[in-house]
């Protein structure tokens, strides 16, 4: 997810049209001032101004300004390019991200101007990837500052222990075989993950592996998780200083995030925590969805996907 190029184009367009708009407003004021001295100059100059193509460009400034303000401080659209948040979000989903729920940020450098609410466990958030802030990621908040997180690499379940509490606050239920299959392709004797196909009712198919599903409940928020016991992770796990493997204590002003598709998500398990300053907003709605596989054109609109994100 990378909207940075569009943001730069929007800022550049805003500056160009804004300069032209201000320039012609100054001209109009100058013409009206001269009107008192020479009526002919007034009619000539006003006519010349109205016929100018530069004026037409300048007239776009208010529209671009409104788009810029909404996109920077209210809602921003994003496109989902990967399966890391399935079954919550599909490739081809277009989502709206609430930009003001966690605070108001400077659109030029993304530093917070005003802080608002803090993220909650279970929030689906868009953030700048800490190792490369030019890239935008979308994951689910699992751990808050002070939480102890323990991950079971076999059944792909997590345990959350809030600060100063010994009782875990996460539950699992409705374990079953899902309607999703992880497809594979083999190149040069190396097995490479390819795509997920929906609604195939066999545990194993040629070139693919049926995924399991369970419901993960954090406080009063429930969401579905995809995983496969047969898939072994090869990525190096992030190891926090003074903690054992698969155990983390979330630092102050940081968050532990994970994808709902546990075996196809590059998240806090592998690179660590998300600083609050990198949060862009909370994903709230799917406003459009296209049936699409990687590197292929969309085939249809999925109207049933238009809904609130939970």
N-C termini distance: 19 Å
Mean pLDDT, to the nearest integer, reads: 82
Largest sheet data: 9 strands, antiparallel
> Treating each run of at least 4 consecutive H or I residues as one helix, how many helices?
5
Strand content: 35-45%
- CATH first level of the largest domain: Mainly Beta
Taken from the alpha-carbon principal axes, the silhouette is elongated
Folded structure, characterized:
By secondary structure, the chain is an alpha+beta fold. It folds into two domains: 4-72; 141-308, Signal Peptidase I, Chain: A, domain 2 (Beta Complex). It contains five helices and 19 strands. It has helices at 4-35, 39-50, 53-58, 61-73, 268-271, and strands at residues 75-79, 93-98, 103-105, 112-115, 124-129, 132-143, 148-152, 157-161, 170-187, 190-198, 204-205, 208-218, 221-227, 247-249, 254-258, 274-275, 279-291, 300-301, 307-308. Strands 1, 2, 5, 6, 15, 16, 17, 18 and 19 form a nine-stranded antiparallel beta sheet that branches. β3 and β4 form a beta hairpin. It is elongated and about 85 Å long. Residues 186-192 and 199-206 have low confidence and may be disordered.
């Amino acid at each position: 997810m990378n909207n940075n190029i569009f943001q730069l184009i929007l800022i550049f367009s805003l500056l160009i049209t804004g300069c032209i708009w201000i320039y012609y407003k100054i001209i109009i004021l100058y013409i009206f001032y001269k009107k008192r001295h020479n009526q002919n100059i007034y009619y000539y100059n006003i006519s010349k101004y109205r016929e100018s193509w530069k004026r037409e460009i300048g007239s776009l400034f208010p529209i671009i300004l409104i788009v810029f303000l909404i996109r920077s401080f209210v809602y921003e659209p994003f496109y989902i390019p990967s399966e890391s948040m399935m079954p919550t979000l599909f490739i081809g989903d277009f989502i709206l991200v609430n930009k003001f729920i966690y605070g108001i940020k400077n659109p030029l450098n993304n530093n917070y101007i005003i802080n608002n609410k803090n993220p909650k466990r279970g929030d689906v958030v868009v953030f700048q990837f800490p190792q490369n802030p030019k890239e935008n990621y979308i994951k689910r908040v699992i751990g808050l500052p002070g939480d102890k997180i323990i991950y079971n690499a076999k059944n792909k379940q997590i345990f959350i222990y809030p600060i100063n509490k010994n009782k875990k606050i996460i539950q699992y239920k409705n374990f079953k075989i899902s309607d999703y299959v992880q497809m594979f392709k083999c190149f040069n004797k190396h097995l490479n993950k390819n795509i997920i196909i929906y609604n195939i009712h066999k545990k194993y198919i040629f070139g693919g592996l049926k995924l399991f599903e369970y419901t993960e409940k954090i406080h009063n928020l429930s969401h579905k998780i995809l995983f496969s016991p047969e898939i072994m992770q090869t990525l190096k796990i992030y190891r926090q200083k003074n903690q054992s493997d698969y155990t983390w204590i979330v630092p102050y002003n940081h968050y532990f995030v994970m994808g709902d598709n546990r075996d196809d998500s590059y998240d806090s398990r592998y690179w660590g925590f998300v600083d609050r300053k990198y949060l862009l907003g909370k994903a709230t709605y799917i406003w459009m969805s296209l049936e699409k596989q990687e590197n292929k054109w969309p085939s249809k609109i999925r109207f049933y996907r238009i809904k609130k994100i939970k």
